[in-house]
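Re: [ENG-882] Designed sequences occasionally contain unexpected residues at chain ends

Forwarding the minimal case from QA. C-alpha cells:
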C-alpha cells in the first residue's frame, strides 16, 4: 500500500500518535536536526516502560531506524540502528517496514532551504516478519526502504519479494560463505606454493653448510 499525504508534523523528542493504532517513540537528545544522533541514555528505562505499556494496550510501535528523517535519501540511507530489532525481539513481535519518499523536500536540517513540496508518499510493506538478527533487519530495511526513499518506487518485483520473504538474505549469506571459502583456498594454495619454492633453497643451504 502506498499512501500520499500533504501534511506532516514531526517532533523528534516527544511521543506522538501517527495513526489510531500506531505509537511512535523516539529516544534522542536535542542535538539539532541533521546532526549525528545522540541518545538520551538516562531515559532508556522509561522508554522501555512506555513501550511495554503501549504493547500491552495493543499499540504497534513505530521507530525511525535511522534515528531521524534522512535529508539526502538519494545518497543512500544513514546508519541503521538496531533499536527496532531489539524491541521486536524483546516483545516477540514481527517488524513491518514503512518507507517514506519526499520527506526531505518538506523538511531539511538546513534552515535556509525552503520547503519545496507538500507531497509525500508512504509505502507500507505487507506482512510483518521476524528477523533472525539485527544485521538481517538492517540489510533488508536499507535495501527495500532505501530504494523507495530514493526513487519513489519499489525494487523490481521479483527482487522485492525475495527481500520481503527472507530468501535474498539467505542468498547473501551463501555468497559471503562462498567468498570466504574461496579466499581460504587461495591462501592455502599460496602457502603450499611458498613451501615448494622454499624447499630447494633449504636443501642448497644445507649442502653449503656441509
Amino acid at each position: 500500500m502506498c499512501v500520499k499525504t500533504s501534511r506532516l508534523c514531526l517532533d523528534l523528542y516527544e511521543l506522538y500518535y501517527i495513526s489510531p493504532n500506531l505509537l511512535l517513540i523516539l529516544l534522542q537528545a536535542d542535538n539539532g536536526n541533521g546532526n549525528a544522533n545522540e541518545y538520551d541514555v538516562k531515559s532508556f528505562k522509561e522508554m522501555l516502560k512506555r513501550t511495554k505499556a503501549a504493547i500491552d494496550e495493543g499499540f504497534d510501535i513505530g521507530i525511525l531506524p535511522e534515528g531521524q528523517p534522512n535529508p539526502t535519501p538519494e545518497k543512500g540511507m544513514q546508519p541503521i540502528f538496531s533499536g527496532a530489532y531489539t524491541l521486536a525481539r524483546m516483545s516477540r513481535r514481527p517488524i513491518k517496514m514503512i518507507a517514506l519518499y519526499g520527506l526531505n523536500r518538506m523538511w531539511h536540517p538546513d534552515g535556509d532551504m525552503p520547503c519545496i513540496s507538500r507531497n509525500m508518499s508512504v509505502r507500507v510493506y505487507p506482512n510483518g516478519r521476524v528477523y533472525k538478527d539485527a544485521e538481517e533487519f538492517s540489510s533488508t530495511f536499507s535495501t527495500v526502504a532505501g530504494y523507495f526513499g530514493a526513487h519513489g518506487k519499489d525494487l523490481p518485483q521479483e527482487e522485492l519479494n525475495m527481500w520481503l520473504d527472507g530468501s535474498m538474505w539467505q542468498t547473501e549469506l551463501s555468497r559471503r560463505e562462498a567468498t570466504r571459502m574461496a579466499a581460504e583456498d587461495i591462501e592455502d594454495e599460496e602457502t603450499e606454493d611458498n613451501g615448494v619454492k622454499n624447499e630447494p633453497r633449504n636443501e642448497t643451504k644445507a649442502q653449503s653448510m656441509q
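QA comment: On inspection the terminal residues look reasonable. The CA atoms of residues 174 and 180 lie 10 Å apart. Proposing we downgrade this to a documentation issue.
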